[in-house]
Amino acid sequence: MLALVYDGPGSRVWKEVPDPVVQDPGDAVVRVDATTICGTDLHILKGDVPTVDRGRVLGHEAVGTVVATGAGVRGVAEGDRVLVSCITSCARCRYCREGRYGQCLSGGGWILGHRIDGTQAEQVRIPYADTSLHRLPDQVSDEAAVLLSDILPTSFEVGVLAGTVRPADTVVIVGAGPIGLAAVLTSRLYSPTHVVVVDPVGARRDAAKQMGADLALSPTDDVLAAVQDLTAGLGADVVVEAVGVPETFELCTTLVRPGGHVANVGVHGVPATLHLEDLWIKDVTITTGLVDTRTTPQLLGMLAAGQIDVSGLVTHRFGLAEMQDAYDVFSRAGETGALKVALFGDHARMP
Questions:
Q1: Rounded to whole angstroms, how far apart are CA atoms 147 and 169?
Q2: pTM for this structure?
Q3: What start and end residues bound the annotated signal peptide (predicted)?
């Protein structure tokens, strides 16, 4: 089969690799009907994730069709249309029993496109298929569903829920890429008074407003003054970091109010300074985290019921064989206006 292979920092190759096969009784093999590219994939290609080996098939997001299952699989069957979770869960270890699937102790967690071959391919092997795949309702398109592999649960769990967004809060989201925009959508579920987005790209600020942001600022604006104007000088109740660079993390810590919460979602490849000399007295909570995808069934239900509209998140569409072109567009998002790119196989179910 054809797949996108990591060939060391700065290098990716679309090439023939062996087809995946069932290796364990709990495995399923899924034909990839739709996939996408994540900012984390770009971090891998920069060399920011040294745990990814050269030769690894990248990707951790997909919708597809089950083509084979191991003898122990009971929850899905050949022919089922499924959502592939970016997190693999054994469902039995201590962390999985606590709902912390991202910390699975039995060979799960974030492994697709990281520790094992991933989803940017014609087929993918999924360990622990019963607890790592979700059967899809007919009314949900592949394009909408693939956004629930990662960005919707990530923004919801690591940003909104970990940040404890509550009604009447002022929420600031630094970064209006796909994760930041998904945080706008999911924060709105809790009726904040204000949602403010900070991003240097005008097209992304416009997209944030369309998703429900009240105010979209550039980093060159006086962001602190604008937030203080909205909050009687206090600062934001919740600040979500959705970029993963030192400057944006440090900006978040200046915008949060005493007693507030900074929820870091971005993937950081280099150290950031934690200004404890300013923060120690402010009762500020800072959380980090890897998504667990425990909310995926909840989000899938809301998507099927029309309670979440993700239609504006995908801006560019490609055939699966156009993987290199899709990477070129996504990696130059500031020039191309790309938010989320989607790639479709021959059997994809379109809107």
A1: 26
A2: 0.95
A3: none
Angle between helices 202-211 and 178-187 (to 10 degrees): 20
- Judged against a pLDDT cut of 90, whether residue 48 lies above it is answered with no
Lowest pLDDT segment from 22-26, 31-35, 183-187, 266-270: 266-270
**Cα(328)–Cα(308) distance, integer angstroms:** 29
Do the Cβ atoms of 174 and 204 come closer than 8 Å? Answer: no
Contact 28, 126 (CB under 8 A): yes
Largest pairwise CA distance in the chain: 61
Distance between CA atoms of 215 and 203, rounded to whole angstroms? 14
Q: Collapsing DSSP states into helix, strand and coil, what is residue 237? A: strand
- Given a cut of 70, whether residue 351 has pLDDT beyond it is no
- Concatenate the DSSP letters of all residues of 292-346 into one string: --TTHHHHHHHHHTTSS--TTSEEEEEEGGGHHHHHHHHHTHHHH--SEEEEE-T
Tokens 């994939």, residue located: 41
Length of the chain in terms of residues written:
351
Residues whose CB falls within 8 Å of the CB of residue 55, separated by 6 or more in sequence, listed in order = 5, 6, 7
Going by pLDDT thresholds of 50, 70 and 90, the confidence category of residue 73 is: very high
Which whole number is the average pLDDT over 39-53?
92
